[in-house]
Model the fold of this input.
Amino acid sequence: MIDLRNLTKRFESRGAKPVVDDISMTVEEGELCVLLGPSGCGKTTTLKMINRLVQPTSGQILIGGADTARFDIVELRRRIGYAIQQVGLFPNMTVAENIGLVPQMLGWDKPRIRARTETLLAMVSLDPATYMPAYPRDLSGGQQQRVGVARALAADPPVMLMDEPFGAIDPINRTSIQDEFRHIQKSLRKTVMFVSHDIDEAMKMGDKVAIFRDGKIEQMASPDELLARPASAFVADFVGADRALKRLRLMRAADAALEPARVARCGFPSADARALLRNHLADTLVVLDAQDKPVGHVGPMELAAGGATLDAAQVRVLPAVVRASDDLRSVMSMLLAHGASWLPGVDADGRFIGYVTHERIASMARGACASGEASPHAIAAAPDAPELATGAAR
Ligand SMILES: Nc1ncnc2c1ncn2[C@@H]1O[C@H](COP(=O)(O)OP(=O)(O)OP(=O)(O)O)[C@@H](O)[C@H]1O
Done:
């Protein structure tokens, strides 16, 4: 846990006005907190006070409940991993030597350092055999930043400070390293303070986001809370006019899927299928195969044109399916691309989990439907609805 209490920093050259002004905040163990705000608002200075690259003017910094002012500075820095945009790899050392530096200072033996270096390189998706003997000049900017992250993790510090660590990476590689780092951070339960300029990065990475303004914290909250309820005009402005769309990125198709029982299968009585449509005030049924995977859909017209039971020839092709883990912004974009008002959601095995509709997503973006609440158009099955597909309902 990182606990900042009434932390203030004044630089003499900057006069009486503090650049960090009496801030208090707590980052719980295993949490990643992003410091976000305009240039010059004191984010980096806050970070640097934690590992004492900058000496606080006043206030307290506690790590794991202990006041860091009492720690020996070398010991303090060994306990805190630090990754910065400029990376700062030593050019005359190999990648392995760069990563092994702190473990070596801690007196680890060579086999342990080698094993750790191999694990960390694999973790950041760099092949250990190829990259351990390489020099920083042999690597791209993005690869250097990956090594920088591996080095910050080397001695397994409980706390990590990261200052725009992915800032120099192109957007495509940045997305993948953000995903990888978030996965590593969650699985290793590192407590991380992460400075960013990038609102999308902050919303994606942070358990909490602290919005800084002129050395003060304007609002600290979860990404969803910040987007849904910005505490001030400054925060609303900062998170952007498209905050409803940004919120959609934080939500998954699984949270939006509705009416998993509104389904049919080939061979089912057409009269029952029509009754199911009536009872749900719906104009379509997803048709499932024996494994509960969507194979198409039918509406009243197909049912009217067919015989007594539903036949494969009546089933219309689905334009696409949505995976449960897809974020709702991507789903919205799929709906628009296909000109569809809904698409079937499927789980990791391809089994139907429900309808993901345009209306439901719009309603979630507005915040009208917290997950779990019924959407206004979700009409529950009437008690006399035929039990066409109990096997598919979940
Ligand atoms: N050593 C220093 N001496 C004097 N002023 C400094 C020093 N370090 C930082 N500052 C000033 O303190 C203010 C806050 O700087 P800081 O680097 O913490 O901001 P930031 O929010 O991290 O900005 P950015 O996003 O641009 O990195 C700035 O106005 C900066 O010029």
